[in-house]
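Support case: user asked for a sample of complex input and structure output to validate their parser. Sending the pair below.
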Amino acid sequence: MKNTIAVTGMGMITAIGNNVAQNYHSLLQKQHGIKPLQHISGKHQHHTLVGEVSLTNEALIEKLRTEVPDYCSRTSLLAAIAAKEAMSQAGITAAADMPIVLGTSVAGMDIFEQHFPHLQQNDTLIQRRDVGDSSALLAKILGSNGYVTAISTACSSAANAIGFGARLLRSGRADRVLVGGSDALSKFTINGFDSLMLLSDQLNRPFDSNRKGLNLGEGAGFLVLESTRSLKNTKKPILGYLNAFSNANDAFHQTSTSDSGEGAYLAMQEALKMAELIPSEIDYINAHGTATENNDRTEATAIQRLFNDAIPPFSSTKSYTGHTLGASAGIEAIYALLAIQHQLAFANLRFENTMEQPALPPLAEHQRIDIRHVLSNSFGFGGNCSSLIFSHA
Amino acid sequence: MHKVYINAASICVNNLSLPNSRENWIKVDLPKIDSKILSPNSARRMSKAVKMGIICAMEALQQIDRSELDGILVGSGKGCLIDSDRFLQSIAVQQEEFLSPTAFIQSTHNTVAGQIALLIKNTGYNMTYSQGRVSFESTVFDAYLQLVLNERKTLLVGAVDELSDISIDISESIANTTDQPITTGIPRTEGAGFFIFSNQKNQHTLGELVDMVIYHPTEELRPESQLAAFLKKNKLSAEQLDLVIYGSAKPETPSEMEAEAFNDLAKINYQSQIGYFDTDVVFAFDFALKQLNNQTFRSIESPIGNKIGAFQHVLICNFGDQNSLMLLSRC
């Protein structure tokens, strides 16, 4: 499927910026957005380190400049901000019947948990926790009447949303799609990861031998994908191509990955095959790199298995944004496209000490290199492993 | 373009023709899980959604050589509701202190698809959709496109939704204070259904999924006009549809548009048979396959009476925020 699926729009909001330009600027300045939690009250407030979007829900609604349904979840608001930016770049003024695919892990849990279990006799609040409600709200805010669906495969959700969008284009069922991921921070996920003892009390250090775990983050990243077939007679700028989307399962454990990184290996291998590339043609890997002991070790093992002696430069941009769960693959897809656009592989912040096994150091500093193909990894609970390959336009 | 066949089916739903079916909430009784499939220890830790999924998945998988399975796709409207509620409750009650991670680990929507993959050691495609009442259709749509495009050849496709006591209590309390009944006839239930989809026909093939569409109904795109376009695309006339099986997001209070849809066709509502849950359409899917194979599964009051049996084309329609059409044909 070489160069048949074009990226024509990108939009995002994260702890390091409210749009793509701000995100790129922060990456360039090596500015991370991880700070003590502000917006969620309780035990973790002012204490647990997270990559929080600085805008409140009210500020997000104001920024959207549209009517927003009652008790709208933060997940849907973040998604709408990112989606609108992507549509605007792609020159799409009305969503009309463009299909929308949202990847999210906790959906409207942020609003639901504030009222649980006393839901103020409010049926709307019950709906809000549904994954499908977050995508329906997004469609409503965008005024869409096309097919809307949502994918929830934990931390690989957005990668799979992007992949399914690509499949809709390939099948001819659509000429363009709006795809990506969104997840708001919630008490539910913060306490969940805390109970698993996966949260670091320091700034996260992906692929460092002294890594202590992850910092959670929130945000959204959306792409407009269009089939090149339908772009033939237009002069619309193409930002890059999506040349592979893969999906495999580690089939090892609900929350940890196998020592050999089998699922990750299979996902990367399948992506290379789909993109018709050999490993040496990958110029940069935007790794999943959560900074947990288990992920970074097994992901690096899988990278080593696949790339042998010729390991491309790799880094985890979760050192800037925190781990944004279901949104991460949407956000990191855009970082991959920015890497191609600016011919810049991003530094993995705070890296000091190479892991012992496998001894693979990530990029400690930004590196200006020729970048034609970027591999972006996303893995999750339930053994879900997905890889995307973006290529230069 | 490859064709899409359904080569095995297994469902787990209520049968409301049994007594005691006038409750608001009716749970499904699970068959005992074979200890060769799942050790009693593992089964005890699993939520009902996972167990229902595994029971149906394993039964459907019996029909095929598992080494041929290219992936597992699961839809669920509410996901793993019991564990999600349990973790929420422990956060509230224990004020975020000393939380056990078990419920959190099992609360993610992809737990069912992940646990099936783990059980049968399948490293193939693994996907979970959640889009309200079209969660199953979303799942089927992905599988359908992959098989048509020949990206993959054999897929396990299913859906599951479970009831949770905590959520039931919340809904009951809202209903009590607002004086709004939870149901006026169709109980809220739970269930699962799993199917083997393949672009290869075999001697067990139950039917062909000819085509499907999921769309937003609007004044301009009413069910009739959508059906007309769908039939035209598939070179069929309305008379060739032997039966329309339909369900609804509001089975007791259908909209005017919905109530009047397809009135000139033989149509039956399936929800009166098994109750209501987000992915209840799995029952319609299984029922349609049985009709195509001349099996009278259970007696359903149908306006077409003596037409039961020897069906060629059955249409499944689900009305809601988004409507779906799935056309199944006899092979």
